[in-house]
Every structure is written in C-alpha cells, then in structure tokens.
Amino acid sequence: AYYYQSRTYLNAGDTEAAMESLVKAEAEIPEAEDNVTKGLVYLTMSQIYATISDMETAGSRIGLSKAFLRKTGDHDNYANALNLSAGIHYAGGETAKAKACLDSVLLLWDDIGKIQKNACYILTMNMKEADGDRTGLAGMLDEYLAEFEAEDIRWLDVAGYSCFLGRQDMAEEALRQYREHTPDYGNDAAYYKASCEFHAAFEDYKAAFEDLEHYSYLSDSLRMAAAGEDTGFIEERYDKELIIEKERSTKIIVIMSSAFGIALLSIAVFLLVRRMKKRNAEVARYRNNLVVLKCERDELAAAIAKNPPTDRQSMAVLNDRLK
User: Fold this and answer.
1) Mean pLDDT, to the nearest integer, of 311-320?
2) What pLDDT was estimated at residue 246?
3) What tens digit of pLDDT does each residue of 141-182 get?
4) What distance in Å separates the CA atoms of residue 193 and residue 195, rounded to the nearest whole number?
5) CB-based contacts of 7: which residues, under 8 Å, 6+ apart?
6) What pLDDT score was predicted for residue 14?
7) What distance lies between CA 40 and its chain's CA centroid?
8) b/e map of 31-46 (b: 16 or more CB within 10 Å)?
C-alpha cells in the first residue's frame, strides 16, 4: 500500500511525501512476499536518489530492484530496472556495465512494451553520441524511426543525433515534428536547447544565439521554481553541501520531466549531463565569436566615420564588410 501511495505522491509532484512512503514500504519488505512490489519500491527509490545525484545510493537500490524483479517473470518492469541501471552505470563512467544492462534488455525484447524499448534505443544512441561513436548510429536511428509512431518518438533526441551525423534535413524535420506534437514548445527550454545546437552545428550563429537567449531565460526560470520546492527528505539523508554541488543538474531534470515519466527522466538526465559538457563549450565559443564580430564591426564603423575612403569601390567593400 505504501508503494502505491508513493506513486500517487510522485504523480502529484510531491517527492518528499513519496520518499516518506517508500521508507515505510522498505521497512515492511522483510515480511513481504510480493517480489514485484519489492522490486518496484527499490526501483522508485533509485530513481529519486538518482535525480538528486546520489549515484552511489541509486546504484545500490537499483541493484536490489533487479534482484527482486529478475525472479518474477515481469519482463517489462525488469527491463525498466535494467534501463535505469544502464543510465546509472554510464553516468559513473562504467560503460561496459551500462552496455551489459542494455544487452540484457535486448534479450527481453519480444516481451516488453514500447516505453522500455524506446528507452533502450535512446540510451544506446545517447551513449554513442556522447562517446563520439558514429559506428552503426545512422542505421540504428533509421530503425528507431521505423519502430515507433510519430507521437512516441523523442524528436529532440532525433534532432541531436541527426546533427551529430551531419544530417541537416533530418535534424530540421525532427525539430518541426517536435513543434507539431508540442503546442507549447515556445515555453519549452529543451526545445530551444536543441534548436540552438542545430543552428550552431550548421553555422547559423545568429539563430543559435537567439535560441541560446530563449533557453537561458526559460531554464533559469525553471531552476528558480525547482529551488523553491520543499526538500525535507533530502536534508534528512544528505549533507547540504552535496545538494548545492549537484544543483546544476536540477535544470536538466526539470526540462525532461514531461517526456516519459520519472524512469526515463532519470536516464535522460545522466546521459545529457555528459552531452551538455561538450555542448556548453561549443555554445560558449559561438557566443564569444559573436561578441568579437560585433566589436570588430563597431570598430570598423568608427574608423570609416573618422576617415572615410575617397573612392567608391573602397567604400562599397567596407560597407559589405560591415554587413
């Protein structure tokens, strides 16, 4: 009963109350007989610990979850645990263990639902992109697009992979599909992040800078809203310094919260952290380039105003340079 109570709280966005219910559910596990519920209790705890970046505890809880769910024959929930475990291992730099978890999901393929299949695809492709590995990625992306209906496809991820592969038309179409399936995309920081990466990848720096400004505004607003939430259960279990150190991950967590629920939210967070480290350096470089170009333009305009050229051809060249 406490487990289902925790899910109700999570669906309502009350993580503190959810954790309190899970702690009560965990206390009853030694006497409980239902291995599915035991596994789900630890799965949900792992998800919550992962979202606050306590990866060590998240890893121990997901290990317990897998141990219980493996015994049950509940392939879908076991695949969920394997997918989450893959994300946790990968975030910790344990790539081989992450891939082993995903290989185990493939063995269950015919007995699991589309959500876990979707997660397995996304995890695998995210890992390839983050590692700079294009081997087989194009074929896997095509398989993914053929496997799922348009409303189930994670179009922003598709846009990212397409940029990585240099497929400009596909990336542009993925962003269009996302807009079509997300009426409120204009208030979605994740959309502007993906759009910024698209424009930067194909050297439209003006559009990339505009997207970056939208992304910064929206993501900062989300971070402030998240910071105002009650984190009582965190304060009981962790040092405040840990939470402050990991606060930067809150922005990504909130952005991804509407995608596939907390299970895929956790997975996406871990993989995006690595991708964001690479992308942020690129975006900073584009921003610096824009600043330099604007300064150069202003200096050139000032020089022309002080000492204008006497011949028409020189003036035409300088005006073109100013543009």
Assistant:
1) 50
2) 46
3) 999 999 999 999 999 999 999 999 999 999 999 999 999 999
4) 5
5) 18, 44
6) 86
7) 23
8) eeeebbbbbbbbbbbb
CA distance 86 to 264: 11
Judged against a pLDDT cut of 80, whether residue 239 lies above it is answered with no
For the chain, what is the largest distance between any 2 Cα atoms, rounded to a whole number of angstroms? Answer: 94
Nearest C-alpha neighbor of 19 from the set 9, 30, 27, 29: 9
Please name which of 145, 189, 190 lies closest in space to residue 167, comparing C-alpha atoms.
145
Report the length, in residues, of the chain: 323
CA angle 212-218-223, nearest 5°? Answer: 120
CB distance 164 to 129 below 8 Å: yes
DSSP 308: -
Q: Is 207 helix (H, G, I), strand (E, B) or coil?
A: helix
Give backbone dihedrals phi and psi of 74, rounded to 5 degrees, phi first: -85, 85
Closest by CA to 194, choosing from 276, 137, 113, is 276
**Residue 65, CB-side half-sphere exposure with 13 Å CA sphere:** 25
Q: Are 101 and 86 in contact (CB under 8 A)?
A: yes
Q: With a threshold of 0.85, does the pTM exceed it?
A: no
For residue 216, what pLDDT band results from cuts at 50, 70 and 90? confident
DSSP-derived letter for residue 243 is: H
Question: Residue 267 and residue 123: Cα distance in Å, rounded?
Answer: 7
Name which of 7-16, 112-121, 216-225 the model is least confident about: 216-225
Average pLDDT, the chain: 79
The residue-averaged pLDDT of 36-55 equals 91
Retrieve residue 213's tokens: 């400004």
Question: Cα-atom radius of gyration of the chain, to the nearest Å?
Answer: 24
Q: Are 3 and 25 in contact (CB under 8 A)?
A: yes
Nearest to 179 by CA among 150, 217, 215: 150
Q: Who's near 145: CB < 8 A, 6+ residues apart?
A: 153, 158
Q: Which residue has the tokens 């994740």?
A: 190
| pLDDT tens per residue across span 67-92 | 999 999 999 999 999 999 999 999 98
